[in-house]
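Notebook B, p. 112. Complex prediction, attempt 2.
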Amino acid sequence: MTDAPGPEPADPLTPADEAIGGFILDGTVKGIPPRARLRLDAIGAQGWNVLAGDLPFPIAVLDAGRLRHNAAWMATFCRLNGLSLCPHGKTTMAPQLFALQRAHGAWGITVATAQQLAVARRFGVRRAIWANQPVGRLAVEAAFDAVADPGFELFVLADSLAVVEGLAAGAARAGLARPLGVLLEVGNQGGRTGARDAASALAVARAIAAAPGLALAGVECFEGLLPDTASVDAMLGTLADVAAEAAAEGLFAGGEVILSAGGTSFFDRVGARLPDAAALGRPVRRVLRSGCSITHDDIGYAQSYARMRSEGALRFPEGDPLPALTVWTMVQSVPEPRLAILTGGKRDIGSDMGQPVPLRHFRPGVHEAPQPFGAFHRIAGMNDQHAHLVGPAEGLLQVGDLVALGIGHPCSTFDRWQVIPLVDEALTVTGAIRTFF
Amino acid sequence: MTDAPGPEPADPLTPADEAIGGFILDGTVKGIPPRARLRLDAIGAQGWNVLAGDLPFPIAVLDAGRLRHNAAWMATFCRLNGLSLCPHGKTTMAPQLFALQRAHGAWGITVATAQQLAVARRFGVRRAIWANQPVGRLAVEAAFDAVADPGFELFVLADSLAVVEGLAAGAARAGLARPLGVLLEVGNQGGRTGARDAASALAVARAIAAAPGLALAGVECFEGLLPDTASVDAMLGTLADVAAEAAAEGLFAGGEVILSAGGTSFFDRVGARLPDAAALGRPVRRVLRSGCSITHDDIGYAQSYARMRSEGALRFPEGDPLPALTVWTMVQSVPEPRLAILTGGKRDIGSDMGQPVPLRHFRPGVHEAPQPFGAFHRIAGMNDQHAHLVGPAEGLLQVGDLVALGIGHPCSTFDRWQVIPLVDEALTVTGAIRTFF
């Protein structure tokens, strides 16, 4: 439980589990040199460097120092503002990054599916919010299997009487002494899941409170996809109203009431608007679930963070979050003036929140360090295995040059890689993470 | 070498390699029941059925009968029209599907990267077109490592003098007696890779022919992303002109000249327009690379195929290609009239060629078989883990119902799954494929 950056006693990025450390890397694994064959935990000893061309292109890399900085930054932000962090594991699905987040005081890890819950449990997570409605026999069974583990604490969501009925039936089948903690989900008209108004939300809350084997543990919403701060504030207002009414009716189970929200775009508003113990007359734990905070990005979250800083709704730590995930590509063709075709495309980089951004270019044997791009350079589009970089003046880029691409929405780049090298500032490989998508 | 559907002597879909058959499936693998633990090659013996809820949702499934039908259909199409098939492996990255394609007479497997080449070589492929420019030390090295294997035949692309120089330098380093086969790539203005006009293409051809260790083996283009048949015909016209001139200049190495193109949208035009031996005065092998033909789809390729049939530019086999890849989801919330939120989203289904299509719905315990959707049902959008289905009348869908989604561009759905069950028409699991993305 430390907020300070820097190496932990046992570095959480170093694989502690043989399923990760002993994972065999060879040329059939994307991002590994064709002739290599080694254990994942031996990769840091190879002396490989991105700029030296020791890895195939494209190659996604994580800056280990920036990961640590971001984990520490978010921990400090939460401490300064009376918040707990339960970062969404779906972003990275990387147990080593879960461990880094837990080493920096994360209260738990959020998951979205039974498979994600299984990965979290398999690799040492002891508390999870399953931020979804478990529906269907296998999902409900997975939830109660977790409840049956005395060392594990699970919270799931419910937004309808049908979901509560399914969970209650699962509780009856499981026959456990300990109840499953359920968070009531409130939503917004036109949005995703979540009860659409206070009346229907409270009907669900009452059903949870009345169901044997279930415990109403709190109220939750997801504001991350809303268009602006006004709609975020409105959704959090509904959450506060519903939580106050549920408290007044005595629907919550004993212990602290969990109030949770928080993607990575508006976590400042969430922190400012989630009700506190005084408002509820009950002990309260206010939980952010911001998953992308561990890597930040070069597109949307960078903009969100600029807004947060300028509005200053909460107390911010020193320094800024830093983009930690980059994909290095190589120029494979310059078929027209002002057009370069790069190795790497939709198979390697997500574009659901915008095309990646050309950050730096590097000519082996010529440049001493990567060079920034001028303005007017952009990725016009990607195919499965190619990116189209438009803008370079004649001679700026040639076949064999390296180009670093900054990404948006790390979720959709992480899930294209089973292994991602960790690098230092000089782009020397110091380790690697394994993902479980 | 058979074009007929149905079980082969040794079923290529049955894993022959311990790295696939012995792959351990448990709840940490997406698509596997949380409590399961078994070898991949034992999955068909479990009696699991999608409609019985034996698998977690979302679950991608491949209809094994349709895969066989499509493989046979494409083989017959090629035979009827004097074409060879070298399907792009990037689509599926599934050695079992490579084996199915090879069992149906595929001439080779196409790859896009050194990693894909490594997977193909590891699992028994003996001939590949690396339909890309190998650039950088590791990629060039991987190409010549394949040339050094006497049982393997490799062709790579070049579209510039810079690429030829890099390959020639690699040939000199490798010092092999056998040359690397190089296909000259022609492209189109505003397109991707490929020389933009005949003059620059021929300059590259002459450089390949003159380089020790390289052999000009043919001419290639990629028409799959062009907007219409007129631009496809124009690109193939350039290919024909360049090939004729290269033949006239005596630039091709001995043996047959390889002429290749063919995504899955316009392979009829490719088949009709690729020059033949008479046009070139040389033995010619005309090679399609259509990767998505193995699964077809429910969106773009379905439309392309309708166009092909109506134009009838070539001879078509009996029957139609059939969509073989489907993602089954479960309704987890019906938060508003005419809106259902489904398990499964961008993490599970590609949408780069359009949102998935609601095909059928099924209520366990009520419906005897999946029911077709009426018109006006569509997926309005997807988040990482959710799909928004709009249109259902009140009561049509409820929490716990199953919904089958048809997909477009199979590439971007395949790469979201490490394991995909094979099912029969009754949606009972008969096996599984492993992917290597």
